[in-house]
Amino acid sequence: MWKERLQKGSFRGVEFQFETNETEIGRRVAVHEYPLRDIPYIEDLGKKARVFSIEVYVIGNDYMTQRDALIEAIEKPGPGVLIHPTLGQVNASVQSARGPRESNREGGLASFSVTFIESGENKFPDSSVNTGFKVSDAASKVRGSFIDDITARYAVSSLPSFLTSEASTLLTDNLTFIKSNLLTSVGIDDVSSVLFESIDAAIDNVAVDVLNPLLVVDSYLNIIDNIEAAVTESREQYNVLMKISEFGIDIPAINETTDTRTKHQNNQASFLSFVQGGALSKAAEAAANIDFTHYDEAITIRDGIADQLDDLADTADDINVFHDLQDLRSAVVDDITTRGADLAKIVGFRPKATLPDLVIAHRLYGDARQFSIINDRNSVRHPSFITGGVELEVLNRAP
To answer: Is residue 350 packed enough to be buried (19+ CB in 10 Å), middle (13-18) or exposed (0-12)?
Structure first.
């Protein structure tokens, strides 16, 4: 029976009875609405904090003592343990409270309306910032700015048919470029068929999509989302997205000799910025999930993303795009620098004599089982006979 599963409600150890309760659940989303587009683009920002609204009361001859204890528990600062009558134990803070409500007609009873919000624990004595979340948040804003930019500037339908054809070719080249890079990638799982189907469908629909910036946006974002689902390993996901973000960097600007050519150049620039920024922002998010093996790997990836963000910002025509790219750059540098600070570094080591990898590993790290650090970095052909006098790349300590 459901009644048998109810628990005695309490907060900070002070018990209460409950009359009704309601819980606010769901996801945090950012709604992007664009001109001439009926359906908005919804960006998921993670789970919402759960909010518990409970009508509680204390009753009995000693209700005043219970009432005062509950008031003290509610007004005490910081989170406390809430025993929710139907959901069990939750670490929560009081968001708001009203009460006590008392009346002559209902003597011996005091009721309260209390809203609790779940509260995470700060497990360390010093506060810290979730640098990975800052990257994700900044990357989301970059994509939003580029979407606003392309929907405002892109207008192929007003161009002559031969320039529309050139724009279609650019879109097709971009999709083919994405597909060719994915075909050489490793670690793509079973949903890759969905990914390649979405690319092929986009190629088939280029003639229609090219006329509408909203269709261009939807098609590209759908493919990028499918890449995230198909390339499951963060490091490989980063590698693929970085390659994709390089599309169009060698495409020359169109000579703006006429008003029509100026519009065509404007369309090309907005499209290339959008696809480069979309892939690069996703690459930044992938990098935030990489468990780096050593300091040098972290710094190489950090600088690679930062340099491309700088290049993209240098060509930004929109001030919001520029600022959001700079914010993403700062978030990436902060995240990777923080996570890479304590990692082992690559150093040179030159064995004096020809030795087995096990012996070198023991001398360097006091643990022969770390031989893979030597072999993997130096493509050792004969692990039992590593030539003396030849410099090796090794880590200054075991990971």
So the answer is: exposed
How many other C-beta atoms are found inside a 10 Å radius of the C-beta of residue 97?
Answer: 17
- Mapped onto helix, strand or coil, the DSSP state of residue 329 is helix
- Two tokens, residue 78: 């910081």
Q: Which helix (H) or strand (E) holds 9?
A: strand 9-11
Backbone angles phi, psi at 25, to 5 degrees: -130, 180
Residues of the chain where predicted confidence (pLDDT) is lower than 70: 1-5, 34, 36-37, 120-129, 186-192, 399
Domains in the chain with CATH codes? 2-118 (2.40.30.200), 131-340 (no CATH), 346-395 (3.10.350)
| Whether this model's pTM surpasses 0.85 | no
Nearest CA among 245, 238, 225 for reference residue 186: 238
- What pLDDT does 307 receive? 94
Query: CA 52 to CA 302: how far, in whole Å?
Result: 41
Q: What 8-state DSSP symbol labels residue 369?
A: G
Question: 119 with 77: CB under 8 angstroms?
Answer: no
DSSP per-residue string spanning 15-80: EEEEEEEEEE--EEEEEE--TT-SS-EEEEEEEPPPEEEEEEEEESTTHHHHHHHHHHHHHSSS-E
> Where does residue 92 rank: exposed (0-12), middle (13-18), buried (19+ CB within 10 A)?
buried
Q: Are 63 and 119 in contact (CB under 8 A)?
A: no
The residue behind tokens 């690069």 is 280
Count Cα neighbours of 380 within 13 Å in the Cβ-side half-sphere: 25
In angstroms, rounded to a whole number, what is the distance separating the alpha carbons of residues 155 and 277?
19
**Ramachandran angles phi, psi of 111, nearest 5°:** -120, 155
Is residue 53 within 8 Å of 95, Cβ to Cβ?
A: no
Helix 213-230 crosses helix 234-244 at what angle (to 10 degrees)? 150
Reported as type and span, the H/E element at residue 227 is helix 213-230
**399: helix, strand or coil:** coil
Assign 3-class secondary structure to 239-264: HHHHHHCCCCCCCCCCCCCCHHHHHH
Q: What are the residues facing 117 on neighbouring strands? A: 51, 93
CA gap 48, 30 in Å, rounded: 12
